[in-house]
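Form P-L/3: holo structure prediction, ligand S-adenosylmethionine.
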Amino acid sequence: MERPAWAPQGIDLSVPSVSRMYDFYLGGSHNFEVDREAARKAMEFLPGLPKIMQANRAFMRRAVRYAVDSGIDQFLDIGSGIPTFGNVHEVAQAADPDAKVVYVDHDPVAVAHSQAVLDGDDRAVIAAADLRRPKEILDHPEITGLLDLDRPVALLLVAVLHFIEDADDPRGAVAELREALAPGSLIVLTHASYEGIPRSREEAAGTVGVYEDIRNPLVMRSREEIGEFFEGCTMVEPGLVAMPEWRPDTPQSPAQEDPYAFSGFAGVGRKA
Ligand SMILES: C[S@@+](CC[C@H](N)C(=O)[O-])C[C@H]1O[C@@H](n2cnc3c(N)ncnc32)[C@H](O)[C@@H]1O
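OUTPUT (holo model):
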């Protein structure tokens, strides 16, 4: 297959990537047939997957606006993905032109496309790094150069922790990042779960199987397990809830949401 200009050299075009599959669910154009095939297979079990992703993005944008309204002007977005509509730096800088954003992802297409989108913006950068090695993130020159960790930061872990298996100690990684943040920092996260999915567990397990097949397991966690990522934090109201239930823009909107949007959990915690 021919490599398009936006795809960096050296990536294996025969293996689906979760980043490019996510781009496909959201209607983006930075994906290959191999990604679309895997995403379509996942959607055979859960046809509403794109609705989940849209609810995830909508939550993320509300949480970024909440952070800016709370006086936060620095964002560390880990597992940031391929830029799409309403990215963190756009939402944050629309509310506060001085807001600084560091994106982090380990996917080469996400990194390359982010570099292209952020070219010329001296307050938003992308660092290629892995959430499983938090020290590398904290020591990364893009982060130490742009963010002041002595002041509060919003740490975004949106739709990424469910790609970290227990063997890779996601709680330890989040704890190490949290330790490095100033009091008053926010942890913003969403996480997949069997809870809330409007289909049987067997159907949802079919989707999980597709991610297993592409050797990028999707780890479903319970609400209780997801709550453990917020150790040392006070939950911002309304706590750990379904995505549309977290501070909806209008009181009516949750009821109008697609049932799939209530899959999994979203929450924001404030470091004490
Ligand atoms: C589903 S996308 C979420 C993108 C964005 N956070 C959002 O919610 O719209 C998950 C992203 O996490 C990235 N990711 C997965 N595991 C990672 C890891 N260990 N380190 C860094 N990024 C990771 C993937 O490459 C992908 O871009």
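COMMENT: Residues 116 and 166 are 34 Å apart (CA to CA).
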